[in-house]
Amino acid sequence: MLPFDFDYYKPATLQEAIELYLSLHQQGKQPKFFLGGTELITLGRIDLLYTEAAIDLKNIPEAHVIHVTDNQLILGSALTLTKIEEANIYPLLTKTVREVADHTARGKITLGGNICAQIFYREAVLPFLLADSQVILAGPEGIRNVPINDIFHEELKLNPGEVLVQLVTDMQAIEAPYISIKRRQQWETGYPLITIAGLAINNRIRIAISGLCPFPFRSLEVEGLLNNRQISMEERIGKAIEILPQPILDDVEGSADYRLFVLKHLMFDVMNVLGSG
Ligand SMILES: Cc1cc2nc3c(=O)[nH]c(=O)nc-3n(C[C@H](O)[C@H](O)[C@H](O)COP(=O)(O)OP(=O)(O)OC[C@H]3O[C@@H](n4cnc5c(N)ncnc54)[C@H](O)[C@@H]3O)c2cc1C
Fold first, then answer.
1. What's the DSSP call for residue 251?
2. With pLDDT > 90 as the criterion, what percentage of the chain qualifies?
3. For a tag on the chain, would you pick the N or C end, based on fewer CB atoms within 10 A?
4. Distance 38 CA to ligand 1 centre (A)
5. Closest residue CA from atom 51 of ligand 1
6. Is the dihedral of CA 195, 200, 156, 84 positive or negative?
7. What is the distance between the terminal CA atoms of the chain, rounded to a whole angstrom?
8. Digit-coded pLDDT (tens) for 74-122
9. 121 Cβ below 6 A of ligand 1
10. pLDDT tens, residue by residue, 165-207
11. Could you tell me where the DSSP H helices lie in 131-229?
12. Distance between Cα 57 and ligand 1 center (Å)
């Protein structure tokens, strides 16, 4: 049970969704878009999310697209993680989303919902940060196509009333060697202690991490150090750990020191698999 009532809307087009948002916002109803709706239920129950108007984006056709061209993959934000696993078109994404939550929850949780989530792990974003994907956004100012690394800083920086519609990824990244490892402290499913994803493109390793800080990230500075073949792997990893974004999480999943210990070992695994000798 949610401790508040809200009106429910299910627009059929992007334009309708955005017009609804603007009109409900003007009426002071604090409208919220949603896809899988799991956050409305989990966070609404504990007073961390409130709305008087929920706009369900599931009927929007553009958000259900899975389209492969010769050189690009386009994925709609309303695809559930299960659907992405079954389609198995982007192996790094398949491996990463297969580790999110449990099978039942993955049937509800969507790509867009995970990337735009308030719950900060947002693990599904890691493969897109690594691939330098583009995001297609629709909002009151129209449609924009933006590099994800220009707009995802700890979270996807959307303008008011803007929605994530699709993600576009070059096939070069989709076909590149990859690795994704999730370490948990508790149970077989659930939130990560650390999730690390890596991709090797043009003989350079890229890495992105969730669970270390209260936001997922890819750091070009960290990658620069990890790819410096002038020094030993041990030294590279040591230096990379010194310049990680802050703060390092220190919570029930694990202390900051333990997370850094686990991360160090995971970095060795990533570099051994992706071949940065
Ligand atoms: C049981 C369980 C286990 C979980 N385990 C993990 C885990 O292991 N790793 C992990 O990363 N996460 C995990 N989560 C968190 C989950 O992935 C997020 O809560 C995610 O938001 C859920 O997706 P959804 O489709 O239900 O999103 P929704 O609840 O529909 O939306 C989430 C947020 O995104 C916004 N939003 C949704 N779609 C759009 C859009 N297209 N454009 C703009 N904004 C949008 C909504 O306004 C809302 O604020 C777990 C959640 C549950 C319930």
1. B
2. 88
3. N
4. 6
5. 101
6. negative
7. 54
8. 999 999 999 999 999 999 999 999 999 999 999 999 999 999 999 999 9
9. yes
10. 999 999 999 999 999 999 998 667 778 899 999 999 999 999 9
11. 148-151, 171-174, 220-226
12. 13
